[in-house]
Structures are given as C-alpha cells and as structure tokens.
Amino acid sequence: MPMHTAARAARLSVAPMMDWTDRHCRMLHRQLTAEALLYTEMVTSAALVRGGATHLLAHSPQEHPVALQLGGSDPAELAEAARLGAEAGYAEINLNVGCPSDRVQSGCFGAVLMEQPALVADCVKAMQRAVDIDVTVKCRIGVDDQDPEEVLPEFLARIVGAGCERVAIHARKAWLHGLSPKENRDIPPLDYDLVHRMKGLFPNLHISVNGGITTLEQAQAFLDGGLDGVMIGREAYHNPMGVLAAADPVIFGRGRTRTAEEAVARMLPYIDAHVADGGRLGQVTRHMLGLFNGRPGARAWRRMLSEGANRSGAGRALVEEALAQIQPNVPLASTA
Fold first, then answer.
1. Residue 39 belongs to what H/E stretch?
2. Residues near 178 by Cβ (< 8 Å), separated by ≥ 6?
3. Cβ-count burial of 232 within 10 angstroms (0-12 exposed, 13-18 middle, 19+ buried)?
C-alpha cells in the first residue's frame, strides 16, 4: 500500500484503544467506512522483539488502511518491531507518546516520553530507517507541570527534524501522578487552540487533533479550520453509526452512508470463519452492541448478544435472531 494512502485516510481516523480496537473491532468499523484510517491496539516493541509475540500482528487485508501502534523507548528495538509490522502489511507505524497508564510509565514509554523529546526523535529516526512506510507519532500536549506552550513546539520540532511528517495530538495534558488513565481521558482540559497554533508553526506537518470529539460535524469544523485530520476514539466505538457510517461521504466526499443492517450482513461471513476456526462469537459481537443505539429493539439486540454470544456453539444464528428484534428504519431520539 503506497504511503500516501494512509496519509489521505488520516483525514479521519479511529484512535488506538487498548482492549477495544482489536482485529474484530476493526473489521466491523471497516464495514461502516471504506476510507477512514484504523489503528491497532498498542503493541509493545518488547512483546514483538523479545517475546516473539508476532501473533499480535495478525489482521485481515480487508481492514486496510490500517496502522500499527507501537509502544517502547529503545530505538533499536522499535526499529525491529517496525520492520516486523511493515512485513506484516501495515500501512503505517505509529509511536505511542500519549498513553498515561502505570504499566506504560513503568516501561518508560507512552506519555512519559513527552519529557524526553530527544529520545523520541532517536526512536523515530531508527524506525524510519527500518521501514518504507510512514512512521508517525501520537502524543499529548504535555505532562504534569510542563507548560504546553513551551514543550509542545519543542517536541514537534524534534520529531519533525527526525523526519516525522504526521502527528496526532491528544489536546490534553497527561497527569502521570494523581490521575488514573480513565481520569486522564476526561479531567485535564482540552486545548484545541494550541493544536491550531501548532499547525501555524509547522505548516508542512500533517496534524490530526484527538480528544473530546463526538460528531462528524465537529470533525469537519476542525478540517475547515485548517487541521489535516481528526482522530476520534470512544465515540467511534460506542456510537459507530453516528461517527463512522456517514464518514465516507461527509469527510472524504465519496461513497455513501452505510446502514447497521448492512454492517451486520457483511460481518456474518467473517463470524462464520471465526467460529469455524475455533473462536468465540462474543469476541466479535462485543464490538457490535452499539450498532442499533436509538432504534426500537436495540435493548433486545444487546441483551441477546451479551447473554448468548459466549455460550458453546453460538454463531451466526444468534446474530440473525438478535437482528430480527430490530424494527426497520424507525430511529428514536433516545436509546431503546
């Protein structure tokens, strides 16, 4: 896949989210948008290089364009992990400089690397030398008592100097001490204006904004305001129809709005193959629970899948039975 494909797709992307954006989730999201860039969960370079866990790179060609997010801080190890990701067929390798979890901090990667821009630059250089696809960075605007107005421009200058051409900025600080990872997603205030100012300082850097964005209308406003891309996380997961189903025509100017029924129908062959291969139905359908939010029968859909998908022998028939509970094309204002 040519490099420009991922860059174009980054006009709208679904953020990498631990325990959520696995390959089954990405396959569902791809039924709703052919254009948006999808990301893996973060995979540590240590797991790939030292642990030999290359099964974590498994994905379907149907997911493309899809990017691999890596966590780590050792340039040589990240370079090898990036090479493995490129060989596995990913369209982009992204370095996590934004996750605030304790596990990430103890491994010296994620948001704590905001304090070490020179090391991040070394990592980017090493990864770029190892692969022929885009190497990108996802970061915060700063951590703890840092002044984002000072540290973010310096950080961006370092990675741009290392050859990075695309960055996704979560427009919040990360508090490594005093806030949980969950609190870090909501409590630190958003500073979208700072992200816009970074575009003014780095006009040739492709900048995507992330954090607190819940609608395509908001996304389009950021694009109209001069940013290059928008990354949406939790809302894309919990409300996929509201964020992804109309993304192709609204954000990319091509294609058409998808329906939830279409997405389910297109997932059935994938579900058949997964179950036949020894997988559990619930591994796939746990990502599909929000498809019919706001539709009559949505509660029954969720209940049937939640209660039955992990039972022995559960497969396509349960999904079709749950789908039969949905009344066609009668949206409601509130969740059924």
1. strand 37-44
2. none
3. buried
Give the list of residues 6+ apart from residue 86 with CB closer than 8 angstroms, or none.
Answer: 93, 130, 131, 132, 133
Reading the chain (336 residues) residue by residue, the pLDDT tens digits are 333 589 999 999 999 999 999 999 999 999 999 999 999 999 999 999 999 999 999 999 999 999 999 999 999 999 999 999 999 999 999 999 988 866 555 567 788 999 999 999 999 999 999 999 999 999 999 999 999 999 999 999 999 999 999 999 999 998 888 777 777 677 788 999 999 999 999 999 999 999 999 999 999 999 999 999 999 999 999 999 999 999 999 999 999 999 999 999 999 999 999 999 999 999 999 999 999 999 999 999 999 999 999 999 999 999 999 999 999 865 444 444
The neighbour count for residue 179, using CB atoms within 10 Å, is 17
- Gap between the Cα atoms of 162 and 155, Å rounded: 11
How distant, in Å, are the alpha carbons of 100, 123, 137, 187, 208 from that of 182?
9, 27, 21, 9, 22
Can you read off the two tokens belonging to residue 223? 């694009």
Contact 80, 49 (CB under 8 A): yes
Do 156 and 201 form a contact (C-beta atoms < 8 A)?
yes
Q: Supply the residues annotated as catalytic.
A: 99
Q: Output the pTM of the full model.
A: 0.93
Element (H, E) at 230: strand 229-232
* Cα atoms found within 13 Å of the Cα of residue 256, Cβ hemisphere only: 3
Query: Sign of the C-alpha dihedral, residues 268, 272, 275, 277?
Result: negative
Q: What is the full DSSP assignment across 133-177?
A: SEEEEEEES-BTT--HHHHHHHHHHHHHHTT--EEEEESS-B-TT
